[in-house]
Amino acid sequence: MPRPKATMTQTALSLLLSPATAVGRVTLRFVAELGGLFLFTLQGLWRIFVPAPSWPKIVQQVYFIGVKSIFVIALIGLFTGMVLGLQGYYTLVKFGSEGLLGAAVALSIIRELGPVLTAIMITGRAGSSMAAELGIMRISEQIDALSTMDINPMRFLVAPRLAASLICFPLLTAIFDVVGILGGYLSGCVLLGINPGVYFDRIDATVELADVTGGFIKSVVFALLVAAICCYEGYFTHARQGGFGAKGVSLATTSAVVLSCVVILVADYVLTSFLL
Amino acid sequence: MKKYAMETSVGVFVLAGLLCVAYLTVKLGKLEVVGGDGYQVTAKFKDVTGLKNGAYVEMAGVRIGRVSGIRLDPKDHAALVGLTLDKDVRLTDDAIASIKTSGLIGDKFVKISPGGSDDALAPGGMIVETESSVDLGDLIGKYVFGGVK
What we know:
The complex is a heterodimer of chains A (276) and B (149).
Chain A: H1 5-49, H2 55-65, H3 70-92, H4 101-139, H5 142-148, H6 153-191, H7 196-206, H8 209-235, H9 245-275
Helix pairs in contact in A: 1-6, 1-8, 2-6, 3-4, 3-6, 4-6, 4-7, 4-8, 4-9, 6-8, 8-9
Chain B: H1 2-28, E1 38-45, E2 56-59, E3 62-73, E4 78-86, E5 96-101, E6 108-113, E7 126-127, E8 129-131, H2 136-144
Parallel strand pairs in B: 1-7, 2-6, 5-8
Antiparallel strand pairs in B: 1-4, 2-3, 3-4, 5-6
């Protein structure tokens, strides 16, 4: 029995439009994800203050995100400053202006490298564990248990992490900046023999308040993005496609770290073009 | 006890961070927390091309202050430059302010040459005798196109 003509045209049409359907599906999912993340962030921020902040939880998270990161932040700050000192020296000495090394090192660290490298390092150290911890709590139904006991999981789990990130990122960035400038001093002045007075005087003369505040604005924005993305990925582990249970947690952690790093660098470009 | 150890380390971390923030903003960023410790005078220049806010003010090669504001005088289209000078520096009312360049292509700064008058310049006063910045490009242009007499 021949097919009715109407169904055949319908099949052909849907076959013809299937690429468009795929694009539409992906777009809708992306937009829904973005909207979910935005609402999640807003709710988390709201829950920091309403009801009153739970300071013990925040202190605990500051300890985990901030105190335990000091060593690694200081270490990479030192080496970043030292390599900038070396590279800057070999570039500047060609123009006979190695006196500008201090300005070059301080400006690139304060404006750019400090906020970005700090954010990426904390993503690797604390962001991944945020996603994994919340993910495991989700798949072992601890978050549902909290809801059952009438404890708001957003306030209990997400808000302290957001608040602690907003506190820790700028402070760690400041530590990174200062240690980085000292690193530049080590390689530039101690190893390569630039006058330390000229080095620090140049820094003093070139760095302006706008550079410093620009760096801090960046680090606050990165704090919000990283904490929100990492908590979101962990919190909604169960809603992911393509993985259940342990696999889901591993996927959530991976995408939290990758997404955070990409978003940090993209946001860095956007912020720099606004701040300049 | 363990809880207090955690709180102590958090406190040390926050204090260390704030110390670094203070160093960056106050020392490097020149944020004036307590009113500043100098006094203001203004100087009127024909041209301040290249001079920036925060540039140094020097007398005999010694730093005595900073440029704290550059704006246009709407009456005669001259540049009014605010100078914040250290308290212990006294200028006479015929001091000469000139804009110099450190090195050939370095930053611009304001150089003040002392005058010979007995009258001191009061805080908030105006330095009238000024020399504008020298534009290297203009000078080269004059030599190339023969504007030199």
